[in-house]
Each structure stands twice: as C-alpha cells, then as structure tokens.
Task: inverse folding
C-alpha cells in the first residue's frame, strides 16, 4: 500500500489560517496591535526546532513542520518542567493536528511575551500566562484524552493571563480607553491602542479630521479625558 502523502500546501494553508485566528484572539483579549510579521512554516527535513520571538523586523514564529506533521496518533511533549500540567502540558491525540496547533501557540506565546516586554525567562510566568490563555481557547477543549497524569494541579494560579493584562495596565493604560475620544484644542482624537516598545509616549491616538497618528503618555490621555469630560460642549453630537 502506498503511503498517503501529506498535502503540504493544504497543511500550510490551514496553519496560516489558524495563526490568523490566534492573532485575532490576542488582539481582542490580550494585546491590541500584536501582529506577526513573519510566519515561517519550514518543511525542511533537517529542521527540528521551532522558534518564536522578536527580531529587528518584528514578531515572528518559525515552525519545524516535519517534526509535527506525521501520520498516526501523536504524543505531544511539552518541556519537562510543565509537561505534566493539565493545562499547558503534553497530551495524546488521534493525529498531528492538535499537537501542531499547540506548538504554534507555544511559539506565538514567546513572540507575544517579547512583544509585550513581559519576558522574564524563556518559559517564565508571563509566557505561561499567555500560553494558558491560548491553550484554553484553541487546544484543550479538543484534546481526545490525556495521559491521566498523576501530577498535582499546577501550584500557580492557572489564570496567569490576567497578570499579563495587569502588567499592561501597570504602565498606566486602561483597556476601556481604547476607542474613546478626547479633544485637544477643539480637535477630536480617538485612542487607538498602545505601543509597548515606547518608553513614555506609548498611547497611540488618531486625529479624526486627517487620520494622522500621534503618541502620548497615559498621563496626557488622563488629563485630556478629564478635560473633555469637563467641557461637554466638545463631547458627543452637540454642535
Ligand atoms: Zn518554548
């Protein structure tokens, strides 16, 4: 019997689609503005390690496809230190699909960890927080069966993802600001998001009349938000 060839073109297409879904989820739930500039799905047989992180050009992932895309049931191994975790650990699956998605989530978590400047160590608390969110959303509901681990539940709170959001907020930005409008010398601006790379001016605003983008500090935003509120003539549709 001839071996059934894996359709690399189709698998590549599926992976790209999956990456887009993860990016959209991250933008909705974890970090507005996150975008992978490079998604390399490397089919070369010599390639065995996958990577994710940040380079000069921006966030990237690079996946060793051959290692994960094989026929038959697949055992997915995570790093030894958390392989036995029920949430971010290893598992068995009927085929390669879920393990492949897991490694993609694993690497995207590294990219976001670097992008959001939350990085402490390669598989540190913030990375675990991000990976937890991605696993719960995209992977864990679809796992056929796990190893029935004898391990105890992870000691750390499983919802470390909220730590990640708290980190962003500790920089002074409030999520509910996004989409809000402020008025500076009678011109309207919309708060678009933030740039975690900035040292101070990390809030991005767009001027309504010409769509030009500017950056400001959270303190500036707070100031103008309050001012806009005090001067209702500039707020809403009142002409
Ligand atoms: Zn890793």
Result:
């Amino acid at each position: 019997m001839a071996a059934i060839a894996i359709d690399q073109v189709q698998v590549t297409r599926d992976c790209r689609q999956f990456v887009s879904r993860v990016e959209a989820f991250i933008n909705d739930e974890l970090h507005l503005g996150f975008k992978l500039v490079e998604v390399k799905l490397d089919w070369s047989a010599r390639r065995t390690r996958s990577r994710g992180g940040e380079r000069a050009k921006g966030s990237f992932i690079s996946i060793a496809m051959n290692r994960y895309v094989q026929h038959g049931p697949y055992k997915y191994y995570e790093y030894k230190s958390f392989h036995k975790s029920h949430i971010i650990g290893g598992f068995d699956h009927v085929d390669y699909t879920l393990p492949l998605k897991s490694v993609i989530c694993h690497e995207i978590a590294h990219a976001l960890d670097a992008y959001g400047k939350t990085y402490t160590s390669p598989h540190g608390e913030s990375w675990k927080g991000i990976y937890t969110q991605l696993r719960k959303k995209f992977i864990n509901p679809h796992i056929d069966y796990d190893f029935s681990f004898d391990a105890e539940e992870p000691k750390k709170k499983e919802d470390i993802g909220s730590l990640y959001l708290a980190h962003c907020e500790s920089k002074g930005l409030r999520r509910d600001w996004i989409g809000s409008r402020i008025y500076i010398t009678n011109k309207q601006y919309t708060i678009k998001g933030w740039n975690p790379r900035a040292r101070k001016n990390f809030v991005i605003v767009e001027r309504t009349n010409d769509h030009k983008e500017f950056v400001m500090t959270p303190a500036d935003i707070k100031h103008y938000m309050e001012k806009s509120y005090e001067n209702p003539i500039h707020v809403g549709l009142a002409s």
Observations:
- The first strand starts at residue 36 and ends at 42.
- The chain has six helices and nine strands.
- The helical segments are 8-30, 65-68, 97-115, 125-139, 161-170, 218-230.
